[in-house]
Design goal:
With 400 residues, this protein is of the alpha+beta class. It has a single domain (9-399), classed as Cytochrome P450 (Cytochrome p450, Orthogonal Bundle). The protein contains 17 helices and 14 strands. The protein has a five-stranded mixed β-sheet. β8 (300-302) and β9 (305-307) form a beta hairpin. The termini are far apart.
Length: 400
Amino acid sequence: MGAFDPWDPAFLADPYPAYAELRAKGRVHYFEPTNQWLVPHHADVSALLRDRRLGRTYQHRFTHEDFGRTAPPAEHEPFHTLNDHGMLDLEPPDHTRIRRLVSKAFTPRTVERLAPYVAGLAGELVDRLVEAGGGDLLTDVAEPLPVAVIAEMLGIPEADRAPLRPWSAEICGMYELSPSEETADRAVRASVEFSAYLRELIAERRGKPGDDLISGLIAAHDEGDRLTEQEMISTCVLLLNAGHEATVNATVNGWAALFRHPEQLALLRGDHSLVPSAVEELMRYDTPLQLFERWVLDEVEIDGVVIPRGAEIAMLFGSANRDPAVFRDAERLDLGRVENPHISFSAGIHYCIGAPLARIELGASMRALLERAPGLELAAEPRLKRNFVIRGMEGLRVSV
């Protein structure tokens, strides 16, 4: 497979040359270490995200045995119960029903109503960073903003919010390629603790509803149909994890890219109206979610290669977003890019329900940093996480 090695620190530091090599070699490649078929081109990834012959799960149609797979270990059950009842890992009809019910509570009006709160909080966080003369952009701005926003939306009291980010990080460790048993143990423990907390909070809201998303999920119904308690718990965890993990990483990846391209940063500082297109371009340029997996439910053919039922396809979002067949000067960071059909929010029925909120958060933090910390500079070389699927930083030290 050449340069594609998701465990090699050099690849993790800059996977994009390896993606270019994959695209040049063909449309689909079998990767033996993970037993997956890699798909690097934008057109194929975009089409496969909408292809109903593929699924995030196979259990609505097949048993593990029928599908030629081994059931997860019994000790991992709390993680899988939590994960398998969320929209992201369900297929129709369950996915359709849950997404429809969640959409009744997670409306565009609800999201838009949060915009002033998001802008105010972003300003406060940046003011604190400026008063301190700098700090870690990750822990001081990028993390607290979306965690506070989604917690506010769900109605999680401020006093209860400290474990949210650690729980999320430990659960998300299971989405990496071939996670270790230690990673699985941490994810299981976080799943048990997070679920227990939410079960209590949901019971409290049933007795005393508020103007929050959890109360909205309890009330949401359609022709007598409601979310089960497990579906509500899984939905809340998904909204928290997906609702901040990508935003945190998009923020720090984006600013690291801006510091590496001073001419683009100067352009943005001179014209804040570029913020919306800058947000889209930075998500394309260094994609927070590099890979998204699908099971093959009915065989598919890509460029003459038949991929059988039971196989797993790994769609390389990071590669698709640098595909020169779709993006002019694809390797160039261009904050003014007009045509930008990136797939960082996925596509098809699993298109990110929180994309509008993510855009509000990313725009708010960028504007606050541009306006309140105009001299923001990199204070130390960025520290990348040793992750491939979820691409982000250990920290991003800055001075003002």
